Amino acid sequence: MSRGRGSGSAACSPILRWRSPVWCTPRSGGPTTICGSSPTYRCTPRCWPPWLAGPDDRSGSPAPLPKVGGRAVTTSIQDVPIAPRRVPVLGHTLSLGRDPLGFLQSLRSRGDVVAFYLGTRPVCQVNSPDLIRRVLVTDAHRFSRGAVFAKARQLLGDGLATADEPSHMRQRRVMQPAFHADRVAGYVEVMREEIAEVVAGWRPGRPVQVDREMARLTLMVTTKALFRAELGQAAVAEVRRSLSPVLNGITKRSMLPGELLERVPTPCNRRFEAALHRLTTVVDGVVDAYRASGADHGDLLSMLVTARDVEPDADGAAGPAAPAMSDAEVRTQVMNILMAGTETTATALSWVFHELARHPEAERRVHEEVDTVLAGRPVTTSDLARLPYVDRVLTEAIRLHTPVWLLMRRAVEEVRLGDVTIRPGTELLISLPTLHRDPDLFPDPMRFDPDRWLAPEAKDWGRARFIPFGAGGHKCIGDGFAWAELTTAVATVCARWRLVPVPGRQVREVARAFLRPNALPMIPEPRIR
Ligand code: HEM
């Protein structure tokens, strides 16, 4: 089917998503202001393109190019429509660098699959929801994760967020229980306490940088959920100090061609290496201590340390259980979760408060619902499913400002997508804002309208047209955790505070590792009830 309509069975209802099974899809095999009423969303280009000269994700060497008459050719996309205004040598790099979101969205009307060039290297953007589903879900075995992940894997190790098959499937099986809905429910108290601690520092009328506050908040929540035991507290402080420089360093390095520049002992490289060393040392120390104590602290790290892997035998029956991960593997997983689970949720929360401030009626309804359900007491796990309007606000904010804005894959075999043939080695790109802002899928897409999720057909949208957490075997393992955290944070903050924009400050989308606001200064005002 060509692009335009998703169909078929429902995935997870947006309202119940926070407690839905995390693996709910089958597997196989110049800046523009966005304050006020401007409907135009563009972003400030930075860090682009991260995968330009990345190595092949499986072998660590460049992807093999197809050969014609014994000579390598630079294109493997002969029958794919090509974006206009390609410049010799540079390809479309400048257009993309000037306005990444605008450029990618401009490709939507040109076909289900459209190619553009980064320098001389083709990348195919997949626009049709049904073809996206094939790439991520039904034909996923024909694709690997692509060059960006290869770089991250070099720096972080082969963890869940970076691994390819078959290693990925084993890791997923071992990690899944730590993110089971029952386990996530147990983290809500930690989440609420950490959120309350951050908010306790706010003073009426004194501006706070909401984006930074949310980054602090999600880091506190993730580290507490990871290392709940007392012995983890020193580690928590060190992680908080080192994580940000490590994240920034990885983003920068994923853009560098080759490894030469990384080896030059510049102050920047030295800071990155020192922070990475501190982070790995402290995580190693905690893993040792957890291993030695053997106790279950009810946190993620306990789950990872005590995990046993039961490999199915040839008949599919359970084989003998064995320790699932070495200490080095546990450390890699911890690092992966810290990287994947903090800025994503922080970015989503920032956009939620930004949109609430711009839509007083939505804000009023959130306050009304929170007051009715909580009646002045702290939020609990059972409240999360009783906040349907908050749920719709979160869903709509994440549709409009999808934090993970690019998914990348690389074809490992020839595959036919609609009318075009994708050759092995071709990089594919799925631009989630292009999908989530498609007027054929979401009428008046730039309008923040939480009630669009009341439409009866909305329950099917999670199948193909609304996939902020991805889909298929790599679907976000932390989606339930993130949803619980988002709901708890919004309910806790909105029970006491309104966040009002600082007058005259413009908020822009910045397409870095995540699609985040450039800055979000806001003024906390105590609510008068
Ligand atoms: C609003 C918050 C979040 C968003 C929007 C988000 C989005 C995503 C997306 C789109 C993917 C799929 C990437 C791909 O297909 O290439 C993903 C994967 C992943 N996410 Fe999240 N995420 C969020 C929060 C979290 C949290 C809180 C955690 C952990 C505590 C987490 C851990 C992971 C991991 C480990 C993966 C890799 C899964 C795999 O490949 O099996 N994420 N996330």
SSE topology:
Blueprint (H helix, E strand, L loop, with lengths): L42 E3 L21 E2 L2 E2 L20 H6 L1 H7 L6 E6 L2 E6 L2 H10 L4 E2 L2 H10 L10 H9 L5 H20 L7 E2 H17 L6 H21 L6 H4 L3 H27 L6 H7 L1 E5 L5 E6 L3 H15 L1 H16 L1 H15 L13 H13 L5 E6 L3 E3 L2 E3 L4 E5 H5 L24 H4 L14 H18 E5 L7 E3 L3 E3 L3 E6 L3
Parallel strand pairs: 1-15, 5-13
Antiparallel strand pairs: 2-3, 4-5, 6-10, 7-17, 8-9, 10-13, 11-12, 14-17, 15-16
Helix pairs in contact: 6-7, 6-18, 7-12, 7-13, 8-10, 10-12, 13-15, 13-18, 14-15
Cofactor: heme
GO molecular function: heme binding; iron ion binding; monooxygenase activity; oxidoreductase activity, acting on paired donors, with incorporation or reduction of molecular oxygen
Protein name: Cytochrome P450
